[in-house]
């Protein structure tokens, strides 16, 4: 059985590696159910189907799994499930003896490891299932003859109690940790319940909270519970407690355990903590095998190793006990102070940022957590939201170290990654306000306040036809922002740019990412405004060009038709007859004036060609508009990327050279201006003028065009009209 299990696990792991290597080959899709094959399938095909269902389609985003490779102790745990199915086929007597031994051994070992003498154990799959059974036991212990579940079972299928029977004890607000139970307030609640005729029954405390690993004041709570006869569910100094040895020891598919103390077997049986079914007793088999494989020294070593990973580099001291959990966040405590990292368990260092600053830091902490998870995947970090502190990053090696195989070197790498990300977070946070002010002071740009974006900020360009009151999708604005995003990415700066919908509408915006260095925000904003304005004007010109050209062609056709009619009236009908017209033209030639039209693409209008034939030069037309540019052009050093501030030390050194360079540029501009003036006075055709459109009679446009080509100088077609 163990051999077959190892072979099956090896096939699954090898299939996973092949899937990662063969990117071009898609795995078989198992999302759509199919009919059961009549001839059956072999084990390899079945395991291939299981592998496809486990890892999904390659088109989906890969999700990091906590258990990458199951070790030998994991195989022992999985073997327990196979053995449990095999053992259940034994005869009743052998099965009873074997299950009793497995249950007794596992209970004894766990009670001694966690110093819970003379305790009983309940093994369950769901972590909260044991607490529900303990609540039933507490109810029957205080009033064994009365079962409240008979009349109010519809309120809770687990306990049979209405919701008013549950009371949440608040945590400390003034003194002590904000994640510990307020003992004074608890005592007040107990006294109030007793005065109202209610019966305080059970108290659930935490020895290591799920969020930040805080431990309630168990000693003080135990005294309070003994004073009022309340069942305490917490840790060693209590009536019951729940353990999760699976993640602590890196064991897959092992049950959770609830240890409790009670002397009445009948009440435990009624409460569901004990059972006579062999299948319920066999739940402990995987844990029974795994504990024997690890041994006492191996179990203690794994738990100590998790605690040492925290105490080595990420120190954290609580009020009473040291906890193997560190929860930290990046924050800006006060205006004008330096940002930094704050360990949540330290009450005196709690951040004071609220409102907008709170949301801003939350976005940065989400970015930090995701970056660290990608850089150090074996760290097992999780991003979490706390009610008071906000978004934080949790490092809990007790829950992940044994599963992921984390070592001390990995923690050192994690600390180094945190230190490398701090300058990026600090720089980004400091540039946000400057970016907002620059955008608000720039015409045509709108600052978008998106609390979920961790970068410098979000900006939207407002074009001429933008409906500011509408929240719907704007196709013209989306086109402009798509072109703007392309232009910004072509600059090859250190910033990342993305396009997406606005936080509160469907209009497109440009999202600027994190800043790793000192950024010239004014240059960045000016570049965005100038580039967007240029894209809008070019887009408007292209959209209008089709209509302008169409109208110009129609007008030119009408004028040419009118000129042909005038020429027909002037020359007479006889000259239009092919043979007669040629003889008549030979005897009496007609001195017809050349009439034509030129279409100016810049002005969008028709102009006469009379100036061309009289002065033998084409007109200059309308000067095209200049491309919009910024009010200032930054002189970058060789190799310097866009939007980078110049070093202060280099400004004084390059001051004289920059002044002389500007003087040289002015001299070159003066020389080029003089040459342009002299060329404008020359009697030759201006290179920017458009080519003429000649008025020709119908049927003779080609010959007329060729004749015109001999009458005027041979000039190449302007580049702007091609």
Automatic annotation (TrEMBL):
Which stretches are tagged as biased composition: Low complexity? 691-701
Annotated ranges, domain PDXDC1/PDXD2 second: 323-429
Record-linked InterPro entries: GrpII_AminoAcid_Decarb, PDXDC1-like_2nd, PDXDC1-like_3rd, PyrdxlP-dep_de-COase, PyrdxlP-dep_Trfase, PyrdxlP-dep_Trfase_major
Q: Which SUPFAM superfamilies match?
A: PLP-dependent transferases
Superkingdom of origin organism: Eukaryota
Q: Which PANTHER family match?
A: PTHR42735, PYRIDOXAL-DEPENDENT DECARBOXYLASE DOMAIN-CONTAINING PROTEIN 1-RELATED (PTHR42735:SF1)
Under which name does UniProt file this protein? Pyridoxal-dependent decarboxylase domain-containing protein 1
């Amino acid at each position: 059985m163990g051999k077959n299990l190892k072979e099956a696990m090896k096939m699954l792991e090898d299939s996973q590696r092949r899937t990662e290597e063969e990117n071009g080959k898609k795995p078989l899709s198992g999302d759509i159910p199919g009919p059961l094959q009549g001839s059956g399938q072999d084990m390899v095909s079945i395991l291939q189907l299981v592998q496809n269902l486990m890892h999904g389609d390659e088109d989906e985003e890969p999700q990091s799994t906590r258990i990458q490779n199951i070790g030998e102790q994991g195989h022992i745990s999985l073997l327990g499930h196979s053995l449990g199915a095999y053992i259940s086929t034994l005869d009743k007597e052998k099965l009873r003896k074997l299950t009793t031994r497995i249950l007794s051994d596992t209970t004894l070992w766990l009670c001694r490891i966690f110093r819970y003498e003379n305790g009983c154990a309940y093994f369950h799959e769901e972590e909260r299932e044991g607490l529900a059974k303990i609540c039933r036991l507490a109810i029957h212990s205080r009033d064994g003859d009365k079962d409240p579940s008979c009349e109010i079972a519809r309120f809770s299928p687990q306990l049979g109690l209405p919701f008013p029977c549950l009371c949440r004890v608040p945590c400390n607000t003034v003194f002590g940790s904000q994640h510990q139970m307020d003992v004074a307030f608890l005592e007040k609640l107990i006294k109030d319940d007793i005065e109202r005729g209610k019966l305080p029954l059970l108290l659930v405390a935490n020895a290591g909270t799920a969020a930040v690993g805080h431990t309630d004041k168990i000693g003080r709570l135990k005294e309070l519970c003994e004073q009022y006869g309340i069942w305490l569910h917490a840790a060693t100094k209590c009536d019951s407690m729940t353990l999760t040895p699976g993640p602590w020891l890196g064991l897959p598919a092992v049950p959770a355990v609830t240890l409790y103390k009670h002397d009445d077997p009948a009440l435990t049986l009624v409460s569901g903590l004990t059972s006579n079914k062999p299948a319920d007793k066999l739940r402990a088999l995987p844990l029974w095998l795994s504990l024997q494989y690890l041994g006492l020294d191996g179990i203690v070593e794994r738990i100590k190793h998790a605690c040492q990973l925290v105490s080595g580099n990420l120190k954290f001291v609580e009020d009473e006990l040291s906890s193997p959990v560190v929860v930290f966040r990046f924050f800006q405590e006060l205006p004008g102070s330096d940002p930094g990292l704050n360990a949540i368990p330290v009450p005196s260092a709690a951040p004071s940022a609220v409102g907008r600053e709170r949301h801003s830091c939350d976005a940065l902490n989400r970015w930090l957590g995701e970056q660290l998870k990608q850089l150090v995947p074996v760290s097992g970090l999780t991003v979490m939201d706390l009610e008071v502190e906000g978004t934080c990053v949790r490092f809990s090696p007790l829950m992940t170290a044994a599963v992921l195989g984390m070592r001390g070197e990995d923690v050192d790498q994690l600390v180094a990654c945190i230190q490398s990300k701090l300058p990026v977070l600090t720089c980004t946070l400091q540039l946000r306000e400057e970016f907002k002010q620059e955008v608000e002071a720039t015409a045509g740009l709108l600052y978008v306040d998106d609390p979920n974006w961790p970068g410098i900020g979000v900006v939207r360009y407002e074009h001429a036809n933008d409906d500011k009151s509408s929240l719907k999708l704007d196709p013209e604005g989306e086109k402009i922002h798509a072109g703007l995003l392309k232009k910004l990415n072509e600059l090859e700066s250190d910033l990342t740019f993305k396009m997406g919908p606005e936080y509160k509408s469907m209009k497109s915006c440009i999202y600027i990412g994190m800043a790793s260095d000192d950024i010239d925000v004014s240059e960045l904003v000016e570049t965005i405004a100038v580039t967007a304005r240029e894209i809008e004007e070019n887009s408007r010109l292209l959209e209008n060009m089709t209509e302008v050209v169409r109208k110009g062609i129609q007008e030119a056709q009408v004028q040419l038709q009118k000129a042909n009619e005038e020429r027909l009236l002037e020359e007479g009908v006889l000259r239009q007859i092919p043979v007669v017209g040629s003889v008549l033209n030979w005897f009496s030639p007609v001195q017809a004036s050349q009439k034509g039209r030129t279409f100016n693409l810049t002005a969008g209008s028709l102009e006469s060609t009379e100036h061309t034939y009289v002065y033998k030069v084409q007109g200059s037309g309308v000067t095209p508009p200049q491309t919009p540019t910024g009010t200032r052009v930054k002189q970058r050093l060789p190799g310097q990327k866009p939007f980078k501030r110049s070093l202060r030390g280099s400004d004084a050194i390059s001051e004289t050279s920059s002044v002389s360079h500007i003087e040289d540029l002015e001299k070159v501009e003066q020389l080029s201006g003089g040459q342009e003036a002299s060329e404008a006075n020359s009697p030759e055709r201006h290179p920017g003028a458009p080519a003429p459109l000649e008025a020709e009679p119908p049927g003779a446009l080609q010959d007329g065009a060729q004749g015109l080509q001999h009458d005027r100088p041979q000039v190449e077609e302007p580049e702007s009209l091609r």
